[in-house]
Amino acid sequence: MNITSAKFEISNTDVAKCPAVCRHEYAFIGRSNVGKSSLINMLTGRKSLAMTSSKPGKTTLINHFLINDQWYIVDLPGYGYAQRSKEMQRQIKKIIEDYILERQQMTCLFVLVDSRHDPQKIDLEFMEWLGENSVPFAIVFTKLDKLSSAAAKKQTEKYRNTLLESWESLPPIFYTSSADMRGRNELLDYIEELNQL
Ligand code: GDP
């Protein structure tokens, strides 16, 4: 799919204030610093549509971007940033959970995972929660350019095997790098497919 336009539409902390119009919506989430903003910029071909930052934990809002005047990319707050206060963590968890459970037009949630790290409890528990709530999701490995192809294979296999300890089958999995644009076509093709449904 070609991205011909990508426009920021609205930021907020309340799912009730998200755009009222019903379009397919694809949300992106992951631990702070996982590479979410970079991935959104890479997918849309815009340098700074989503705010990238070397300081983790910056985005605490639900950000809607209208793509090709047809569908939305939604940048959700990063989770699991320990330096946030307990109260802030609680508020962000609520924003995320309300959005995921209430937003009917969310067609797929892309859960980003840093390919360099071993499976993390917080991500595994989050995916478990998605499963319990029948939320459609896919896993996106990020920053693959930082690993050799052998290391990438080993790490991602380890991840899949860990998931298979508790899941009967795996969700769709994408292998990406915002640095070399790996996985861009695969992700956009998948979105295009879902847009037809
Ligand atoms: P976010 O907090 O999840 O939105 O993460 P960002 O997109 O702001 O990225 C966090 C840091 O990781 C930044 O320093 C990015 O330049 C870097 N980064 C993100 N994606 C990639 C990638 O695919 N490859 C490499 N080498 N660095 C990346």
UniProtKB/TrEMBL annotation:
Keywords of this entry: Cell cycle, Cell division, GTP-binding, Magnesium, Metal-binding, Nucleotide-binding, Septation
Organism field: Muribaculum gordoncarteri
Family: Belongs to the TRAFAC class TrmE-Era-EngA-EngB-Septin-like GTPase superfamily. EngB GTPase family.
Molecular function GO labels: GTP binding; metal ion binding
Classification via CDD domains: YihA_EngB
Organism taxonomic ancestry: Bacteria, Pseudomonadati, Bacteroidota, Bacteroidia, Bacteroidales
Record gene name: engB
Cofactor: Mg(2+)
Protein name: Probable GTP-binding protein EngB
GO biological process, one term: division septum assembly
SUPFAM superfamilies tied to this protein: P-loop containing nucleoside triphosphate hydrolases
Transmembrane segments: none
InterPro entries assigned: G_ENGB_dom (IPR030393), GTP-bd (IPR006073), GTP-bd_ribosome_bio_YsxC (IPR019987), P-loop_NTPase (IPR027417)
Signal peptide residues on this chain, from the entry's feature table: none
Sequence ranges assigned to domain EngB-type G in this UniProt record: 22-197
Pfam family, one: MMR_HSR1
Free-text function comment from the UniProt entry: Necessary for normal cell division and for the maintenance of normal septation.
Coiled-coil zones: none
